[in-house]
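REVIEWER CHECKLIST
Item 1: Sequence provided? yes
Item 2: Single chain? yes
Item 3: Sequence as submitted:
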Amino acid sequence: MSDAKSKSSNRTAGKVRWRRFAIAAVPAIAVAGTLVGLTAEGAIASSISVSGEAFTISAKQLSGTGFEQFGGIVTQSNGTPHPVMVSAIKNANLTNLCQSVTIGPITLRLTAGDAGTPVNAQNLIVDADSQTGSTATFSNITIGQDAGTLTEVPGTTGPAGSFGEQADSVTIDNLKQDTWLTTAGTFTLPDLSLGFGGSC
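Item 4: Structure as written out by the authors:
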């Protein structure tokens, strides 16, 4: 009788663990859909409620034409605001792209563009609260322009009267960003790999 109770108890404990795993995995899979299906237009990014989980983006190199940057705020559905740097690029290529998000015990990891063909994004907009790179090079940059008058990415401007900058082109080596929201008109991911693993 004691052995039967012990086996029953073990089975119950196993079910609880799997249930907890499923509860944690469902949001992670939803985030995966967001990371892969980045098809929203940049102009409506400000109307999107973000999740409570920032994610990491890294790339060996980002190169793009048509660059804008200005300050903004993204908001969770519960009303929590997050100040961000909005970086918009009309045409971007990313080599060795990695995106990861950790929810509870699970880290979801996406990689692409690591086999000779870079990831390509059109009208890419990234709302990040931190960004680093080993080297950043801008061509024909204007710093301090009214964000409401930026012209490099059609249909994308910042708040009128606020600080902005733009450049004809940008190259950033060893890019890393902590990001709340990414949108793009199109996002092409060659050699896509998606699964559970370590962070970027």
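Item 5: Key structural point noted by reviewer: The chain has a mean pLDDT of 81.
Item 6: Recommendation: ____
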